[in-house]
Write a structure and sequence with these properties.
The chain has about 190 residues and is of the alpha/beta class. It is about 35% helix and about 15% strand. It has seven helices and six strands. It has a six-stranded parallel beta sheet, sandwiched between helices. The N and C termini lie far apart (about 40 Å).
Length: about 190
């Protein structure tokens, strides 16, 4: 049975921090693959008007990850009913890919609000969760449930918001996004 890490996000746009983190999580969490799950609008972040269309974000991720070993861009969640809830996605994945065991990969910021997630207790009871550090978030490691563990990964101080802001100001983004998508990001944002 393959161990697959589900790394969800808007990837608006995907940047080198996402790719670096996926590489690290592949190793640190002992996974066979990491699926970067391009997500529709996050139900807890409704109202963002800067979100590129779903398929464009997926195509950017797919191009950016071309040639990466063990890291795959996935548009699976884009075809599920909305709103998009992680519990529903994991249930669909289990039903369709019974040959895989899924692990949820989330940032410390998402872990801090995890109690507000739809069916959070069910997710914790059914799936391993690996939490990675995020800027501005702290994790109380003394109170983690048994299915949750911390991944000690390097934190690259970069964000999709910063990439979008730099493009809007006509500033260079070289080194912030994979070179294969840099001209596309400058054009689309």
């Amino acid at each position: 049975m393959s161990r697959i890490g589900i790394f969800g996000g808007s990837f608006n746009p995907i940047h080198v921090g996402h790719v670096s983190l996926a590489r690290q999580l592949l190793q640190v969490a002992g996974l066979d693959e990491v699926w970067l799950m391009v997500s529709p609008q996050n139900p807890l972040k409704a109202g963002s008007s800067e979100l590129l269309p779903d398929q464009l974000r997926y195509q950017l991720a797919r191009i950016a990850l071309h040639g990466e070993q063990g890291i795959v861009a996935s548009n699976y969640e884009l075809h599920l009913p909305r709103p998009s809830y992680t519990w529903n996605t994991l249930q669909h994945l289990d039903a369709e890919f019974s040959q895989h065991a899924f692990t949820l990969l989330i940032g410390g910021d998402n872990w801090q609000s995890f109690g507000r997630w739809y069916r959070a207790a069910d997710i914790m009871a059914r799936y391993p969760i690996v939490v990675y550090p995020r800027r501005g978030s702290t994790i109380d490691t003394t109170a983690l449930p048994p299915t949750v563990r911390i991944a000690h990964t390097e934190l690259l101080d970069i964000s999709s918001t910063e990439v979008r802001q730099r493009v809007a100001l006509h500033q260079k983004i070289t080194g912030m996004v994979p070179s294969a998508i840099e001209p596309l990001v400058e054009l689309l944002y």
